[in-house]
Amino acid sequence: MTAPVPTPRTGAPHPPAPPVRLLLRRYRNTGDPLSCEPVAQGLLNRGYRLRTTRGTYFLKHHLDGDHEAIVHQHRATQRLQALGVPVAPPVESTDGDTVTVIGGRCYALHPWVEGSHRDGAQLTARASRRLGGLLGLVHTCLERVMEPDPAALAYLSPDPADTFALIDELLALARGRARHEVFDTLAEHRLLERRELLERHAHRRPPPGTEPATGWVHGDFHPLNLLYRGAEPAAIIDWDRLGVQPRAEEAVRAAAIFFVRPTGELELTKVRAYARAYRRAAGASASELAAAVHRVWWERLNDFWILRWRYMLDDRRADPLFAAVSALAVWWTREYEAVREAFAG
Fold first, then answer.
1. HSE-CB for 261 with a 13 A CA cutoff
2. How far apart are CA 93 and CA 62, in angstroms?
3. Could you read off the pLDDT of 137-151 as tens digits, one per residue?
4. What percent of the chain is modeled with pLDDT above 70?
5. Which of 235, 253, 237 is nearest to 303 (CA)?
6. pLDDT for res 41
7. Is 264 inside any structural domain?
8. Structure pTM?
9. 165 within some domain
10. How far apart are CA 280 and CA 137, in angstroms?
11. What is the DSSP string of 228-250?
12. Do residues 103 and 44 both lie within one domain?
């Protein structure tokens, strides 16, 4: 799964402030507004810390405006909370709805969860096991509360021929910039390096016809979507990408985000602790994780979403991630067997 494609921001007007007074009238006992401050902007939505005379809330502006899909996500978190999964379901309005539409915009009000984000460098081996067990719990509980999706998920691995064409296009854009920056030099180096790696490993493309086991997943499980209170997870947030996907792939992708060092290596000792706990909690086999490692490795080898954002959409929000992400693809290829063993051993 690659990152979502954002709307180009060049020349975009400053977003209007949410209509908090009008919004709060739709709820009981939420009080009058005192302040509404933007929080770190996400890639899919806008969030605000809303303080009122009755408490503090997280106000979420869903930019996609898909009312039905948002309600679907909300119902899932309500059911997960009943099973003991740490989530923060939305507050219901006076009419029992969890989505408030004002001026064609969709808003949701959530209780404010005090906590902090923690990446893999801040997690001990024990906390890494706790993280893997938590994701396994999410997957098994989603299986209990969500209806089976009858649609078959056709697996099609990236075609290196398409990737070669994209590399050529991105190289031309990086080289053609009027003002060449250090980032552009690194981008050019990584693009040439990746083309050589793909030429060498094209025969390892995952074959079609072997569909991975799928199920309902969070869809975006990473450090910024998990709040900790002390050593314990307090809330899994941002369920916008809830959907049916290969579950083991989410486990591998999450680990590749949590446990990547700035230089692009994975902390394999922590990965091993995480993966063993996930397999126990989710009932996943070692072979299932090994196959997911191969598919996600191939996906990473063919993926250039950060460069697409920068050069095709003039969006630089993800630029700080590029050094580690691009280095990881190279390191993972070199240490392929060690990575697979960490997840499946």
1. 11
2. 16
3. 999 999 999 988 766
4. 92
5. 253
6. 56
7. yes
8. 0.91
9. no
10. 10
11. EETTEEEEE---TT-EEEEHHHH
12. yes
Asked if the structure places residue 221 within a domain, the reply is yes
Specify whether 294 is located in the same domain as 193.
Answer: yes
Q: How far apart are CA 119 and CA 3, in angstroms?
A: 19
Residue 303 tokens read as: 């993926």
Q: What's 92's domain CATH number?
A: 3.30.200.20
Asked whether residue 202 falls in the same domain as residue 56, the answer is no
Name the least confident of 24-33, 207-216, 254-263.
207-216
Q: Are 270 and 289 found together in one domain? A: yes
Q: Which amino acid is at 335?
A: E
Do 80 and 147 belong together in one domain? no
- Per the listing, tokens 């909370």 go with 81
3-class DSSP state for residue 268? helix
- Counted domains in the chain: 2
Q: Whole-angstrom Cα distance, residue 194 to residue 156?
A: 20
Q: What is the pLDDT of residues 222-258, one digit of tens each?
A: 999 999 999 899 999 999 999 999 999 999 999 999 9
Both structure tokens of 53: 């005379």
The one-character DSSP state at 120 is G
Answer yes or no: is 244 within a domain. yes
Which pLDDT belongs to residue 11? 38
Residue 101, token pair as written in the block: 């539409």
User: Is there a single domain that holds both residue 131 and residue 80?
Assistant: no
